[in-house]
Structures are given as C-alpha cells and as structure tokens.
Amino acid sequence: MKTTILGYPRIGNQRQLKKICESYWAEKTDKNTLLDVGRSIKKDNWILQKESGIDLIPSNDFSFYDQVLDTCLTFGCIPKRYNNLKQGDKLDLYFAMARGLQKNDHDLTAMEMTKWFDTNYHYIVPEFEKEQTFEFFSSKIVDEYKEALALGIKTKPVLIGPVTFLLLGKEKESNFNKIDLLDRLLPVYCEVINALVDLDVEYIQFDEPCLALNLNNAEREAITYVYEKLHAEFPNLKVFLANYFDCYGENLETALKLPVDTLHLDLVRCTSQLDDILESKLFNPKTKLSLGLVDGRNIWKNNFEASLNFISKASQKLIPENIWISSSCSLLHSPHDLDLEHNETNLPAEVKQWLAFAKQKLEEIATLKGLSSNYKAEYLTLFEENKLANLKRSTSSLIHNQAVKSRVGSLNDTHSQRKSNFTNRQQEQKKVLNLPLFPTTTIGSFPQTKDVRSWRLQLKKGTLSQKEYDALIAKETEKTIRFQEEIGIDVLVHGEYERNDMVEYFGEKLNGFAFSSFGWVQSYGTRCVKPPILFGDVSREHPMTVKWSKYAQSLTELPVKGMLTGPVTILQWSFVRNDQPRVITCNQIALAIRDEVIDLEQNGIHIIQIDEPAIREGLPLRKEEWKNYLNWAVKAFRISASGVKDTTQIHTHMCYSEFNDIIENIANMDADVITIETSRSEMELLDAFVDFKYPNEIGPGVYDIHSPRIPSVEEIEHLLIKAKNVLPKEHIWVNPDCGLKTRDWPETKTALINLVKAAKKLRTEV
Ligand code: GLN
Ligand code: ZN
Question: Which residues contact 571 (CB under 8 A, 6 or more apart)?
Fold first, then answer.
C-alpha cells in the first residue's frame, strides 16, 4: 500500500504568502523576493510530506492566488480585456485578472469570484466566449514539477480536469454551450501532458469534482470522451482521477468504465461508495483505488479503527499495490499545524488532543499505512493513543451537556411558530413602531476604523483595561447613534464595534466553542479565515449582546435594532463536530440565539435582526439533498426567531445570494423583514421575490458597500422606483446592501445622507 494526498495548504504556516503578496501589490517588495517566498513554501511542503511518509506527493497544488486562475493561465484562457498585458510579465497579468488593475492608463476590472463547491474557498470564474481559443500559455505545472525534481522528489502534478474546468466557467455570450469547447481545449491539455510526459512524469492527478454534482448525459459523455482520448494518446500515463466532496452517485457507472489508473473516493463525505464500487460488476480490480480516509475539510483526529475497516474491506478485493491511503480532498481546506497552538484559554489541552491539522493529517495517513503493513507492531502505540483520544472525546464532560441534549430533544412545532401570522403581526407592529413609509435602516456594522481595531488589539495585549476599552466602544456607539439621528435614519443600529467577527463574537460567548491562534484557512487570494472550532453541546451562559443594545437604546427615543448572527451561519462558518448530525448542532445554536432574542425583547429592544448570510452556501452539492437541508435550516432560523411577541419585529439579512431556486424556503423563514444585496445587479436579484409574490416586508439594498464609491440621490431613487414598481409600497425598506464595517466614515456619511434623502423624496411622491 502507498500513501498520497490531493493537495497541501499553500499559504505558509505563518501566512507568509499572504504577507509577501500584499507587500508585492503595495509595491514594497520586488518580484524576486515574492518568487523566493513561493519557492520556499513549496519546498517546505514537499520536504514535510516526504519526511512524514507520503509516497506520492502532489505538485502544482501551490498557487499565488487560486488554482482555477492558474488553470486559466495554463490554457491561455484570458479574457480579451487583458490582451494588452499578455506580452508583459505573466505574474502581473495573473494578478490583474485576479484583482483588477487601476494603474497608469489601465482600468481593468477583476474576474468574478465564487465559492468552490460547498466550501468557503472562492475561486476565480473562467470566462468563455463562443469563439474561445486555447493555447499552452503558462508552464507553471511543468516548472513546479522540475522544481520538486531538483529536490529529488518525483511528484504527481495536479491539474483541474477539462470537464470540471469548463463547467466551472461562465459563458460570456448566450449563443453556445461551454461544454462544446472541449474539442478545442483537449488538444491543449494533450500538449501540456506531453510536456510532462517528456520529463518522465508517471502520474497526473486530474481533479474532476464535477463528478460529485448532478451531471446531464452530455456532461457525462464528455468525461468518458476525455479520459478515453487521454488513454489513447498516453497509454503509459497513470491517470489519477479525483472526485471529492460527495459520492460519484449516478456518475459512478461512467467513472467505473473509464480507462484510468486510479479512482479516488472521498470516504468522509460518502462512506457507502466503497461497498458500491467493490460490489459493482463494472469494477475492474486492476483499477487502483485511492481511499480518501483522512478528512481534508475538518479538524478532527481520524478514527483509525474505522479507517482500518475500510482498508481491510478494500484489501479483500484488491492487491495491496492497488490501494492508496489518502486525504478525502486537498488539505487546502485544513489549517496548517496544530503544534503551533499553545494558548490554553482559547484551545484547552483536552480539546486539542482531539484535533489534527494538515501536518498531523500527513502523519495519520502514514500511520494508517503502517498499521496496514507487515511492520504493524511499530505503530500499535499510535493506534492505542488514537483509540483513547477518540474514546475520551465520546465521553468528555466538556462536550456532553445533558440539559442541552434534552432541550433539543423536546423541541416541537410550537417552538418554530410565531404566535400569529405575518398579516396580524404587521398590524400590531405598525401600531407600536409607528414607522414612516419606506423606513430607512442599515445592516448593522459601521466603519471598523483602524482605531477601533487597535483598541481590541490593545485589550488583548493588556495595554487597555476592559473598563477603558468599554468606554471607548461606548463613545463610538454614541457617536454612531447621534449620527443616525442627525441624518434622519428611522431604525438605528449600535454599530457592532464590540465585535471582531460576526461568528467569532458569538462563539467566544457560547459554551461548546474553542479557538485556534494560527488555524488560518485560505478563503480567497490572500484572504484567510480562522473558523471557530465547534466541539461540544452549545449553550449560552449569559446574555451576549444585551448590554450594548440596551446601552444604545438608552441613548435615543428612536428604535435601535438588536443584532444577532443566525444559527445556520454560525454553523456554516465554523469547524463543526462530526460526532452528531449537523441538524442537532444547528438546533442547539438556534436555542441559544432564541434565548438571546427573548432577552433583548425583555430589555426593551423591539426590532431584532438575525443575520443568515450563509443559508444558501450550506446547500448540498446534489439537488436531491436540498429539501432535507432547507427544511432543517429554515426551521433552525424559525426556532431562533419565534420566542417573541407579535409586536416584536424580526429582521433577517442575506448577502451574496441568488434566491431563484430557494425563494419558497426564504419566504418560509417568515422574518417580518428581510434585507438583501441587490444594488450591483440593478435589482435583478429582487425578481425572485417579485415573481414569488414574497409576502413579508423587504429591503432591497440600494447602496453597494463593497466599493468606496458614493451613490447619488438620483441613483438610489432610481433603484427604489424600480422596487416600488414591483412591490407593495408598504413592504419596502430602504437600506444598504450589507454592513458598513469595511468602509470609511467620510464615504459612509455622504452615502447614507443620500439614502435618507432618496427615501424622503419617494415619500412625498406617493
Ligand atoms: N450585521 C452584519 C454586519 O453588518 C452583517 C454582515 C453580513 O451579512 N455578512 O456587519
Ligand atoms: Zn451582508
């Protein structure tokens, strides 16, 4: 048996790549230094894997920005607007495509970005035209193979497969089907493969995670066509075909018939497929199987006992030489190294012993091989340690809280039902809140200036006392309340200055969460996130937001909106426990938020917003699983929102969403008001709500907060009129697209003044 992985994190264990890229972009570092840092990260990763006992090490899994953008460069898939840059330096062209370029006489927009399958990683979306041509443009994959070879390591270059590459892209014209570009693309793939084969490359890993999606026949046929063709062209090449994030599902038959050397299975996301494959008549026992046993998407220690069961099952049908022990997917989605974690307050030793980050996962893979070999005895202590850690986890009092479990167990329909229906609630709320037509509000956060962030840092370092910190936050909050009063906003917010991040803030206050200090995971480009570790039953000891909301409300006669993060978003943006179904964890969070909502109400807060920006990204990859997910996700939101009186108005907020195929479920959340992001699409995203006759109130965003640009009164009015033409006027709210956290004060002030002016103008016109 041999070991391999599908890819390794490339940001560097100290986020070196982030720092050097940002410095290069700011023109504070030269290109050679940047390339040096890249080389040293690759080298460290390769050597680490080698020393950990990985037999077949990937290359070309490194990237200065994104692996899909790398693929675009490899195949010369470069949108025309960058043509002038094609003669120059390829790395600068690459960064211009990733980030746009506004310099000298260039004013180029960046390419779009979207989520990589159901992860929180964002890739650059390839752009295709009908007359799209391809060429072997960047030799990165070849160069990196040589780079590793110079270190004595013969790697397995990783390449996104042609079908997945095409399916990930966007058709920039409407008169063609991108899959038809295959005939033009495949010859260039062959050229690239040729260059690799010339260097004696033995294995190439083709990532085709589109096999985890619902494919149509043409798409499945494309898979067959590609891999038959590659086999015909390169009969000696060993094709390592990687599907991950879900089962092969209805694509299994297609996959089993392919003339490939190895099929990779994600046995974390799809435990049943090993049986399916081994029992299938189509399975050719000469095909190698790569068993993706070690979870690349989460931070829990592997369960060696369970993994060995899979291995022994495979061994009954396959000779050991035909079995790879592997990670479920690329380790790109795991943080780097647990050994760096020494902060006991954030990450207690008891919790730490249950975890494995990327580096530890390499060791796990090697140990699994050891345990399956003739030298088993040397590894038995590690096996026992693993067994003990997992046993301790399953019984730890840190994790298991009987009161929480019983509370979730006794949930019934009344918990997810407001007292009256929306129409009644709307009338009751009108009487109490007394808001004008087209009420104005914001989404929650106000600018998190350098000062605000430095106070938090100083508090952490101990150079500011809690009292001093609180006083500064109070002052900033008051300033924000006064500003909103002055310019005439109707429903105020406190500004969220006390929060570092909308999930981390709640995680820190809830039981059941731990935090790493260096557990960074790439989100896109140089942006990294450090998801909280949700390890145990979730409960709320004390109110989490009442103090600041109550304080803000005490400053003004106008209503101040309470601000919470919803259960699905907290779940979605954390590393979640794998010892119980996600729905149970989500309901535990929902109950904690519900208690907070009730406490806010009892403390005089009459409008409460529960943000759920992550509802859509939680959708499973396969459509047949959507219904189940949407049912429990919507229900969890309703549990959090339904403990209050009819007169209390519940808002929710969602950004970066397409609502078309989930609008019924969004309506079913039954929030009194929903605010959404719509301004960049010129209200296009509103169509789903209009077509569905969305019954409750809605605030379509009229100000794009992602850009420092200030929208004029006329522009905002124009968007509002669009909304007014299609929605009942009594249902419309006026607000920005999202929170103002990343903006600066000067532009925020002017933009909001314009927003209020536009709303007032509209009121006089009805
Ligand atoms: N209330 C949050 C804020 O304004 C919402 C952020 C979000 O939707 N991502 O920052
Ligand atoms: Zn938002």
Answer: 534, 582, 585, 586, 589, 614, 618
> What is the three-state SS of 666-693?
HHHCCCCEEEECCHHHCCHHHHHHHHHC
Q: What positions carry a catalytic annotation? A: 706
Binning pLDDT at 50, 70 and 90, where does residue 107 land? Answer: confident
Task: Compute, in angstroms, the gap from residue 533 CA to the centroid of ligand 1.
Answer: 21
Determine which residue's CA is closest to atom 1 belonging to ligand 1: 444
Q: Residue 631: is its pLDDT beyond 90?
A: yes
Q: pTM for this one?
A: 0.95
What is the rounded CA–CA span in Å between residue 712 and residue 757? 10
What residue numbers does the annotated binding site for L-homocysteine cover?
A: 443-445, 496, 611
Q: Please, which contacts does 759-762 make with residues 24 or more away whose CB atoms are closer than 8 Å?
A: 759/438, 759/439, 759/440, 759/720, 759/734, 760/488, 761/713, 761/717, 762/437, 762/438, 762/717, 762/720, 762/721, 762/724, 762/734
User: Which of 546, 548, 542 lies closest to 601 in space, CA to CA?
Assistant: 546
Which contiguous run of DSSP H or E holds residue 478? Answer: helix 466-487
Residues with CB under 5 A from ligand 2 (ion): 613, 655, 738
pLDDT at 766: 82
Please give all residues whose beta carbon lies within 6 A of any atom in ligand 1, as ranges.
Answer: 443-445, 496, 502, 563, 611, 613, 653, 655, 738-739, 741
Q: What is the share, in percent, of the chain residues with pLDDT greater than 90?
A: 95
Q: Which residues are annotated as a binding site for 5-methyltetrahydropteroyltri-L-glutamate?
A: 115, 527-528, 573, 617
